[in-house]
Amino acid sequence: MAVENVFSKIRNIFNHYNEQGEPQRRQAYEQLKTDFGAKVQEAVKQQLGTTSGVRIDIENQPQFQEEWRRIKIQLDSQYISLLNEYKQELTAIA
Fold this sequence. Notes:
The protein is mainly alpha-helical. It has helices at 2-48, 62-93.
């Protein structure tokens, strides 16, 4: 019975991750893309005096990708923490 209780908690975490975590990650990604794009546009404008004719693929910029990895790890850490806690519960039961 205790094992089923822990498995139920794990299923709930996965359901939450899929149902609420995914939209949250998508929103965070789009917000980062918007913010990062604005910063890059401002930097280009300061250097060139204009941004017309300049097309920058924000998503392929290494700084963008690194920042996205950091944010994603931060968002996922709450789930990983709970899964580790449940893993310890399972180990204690066995």
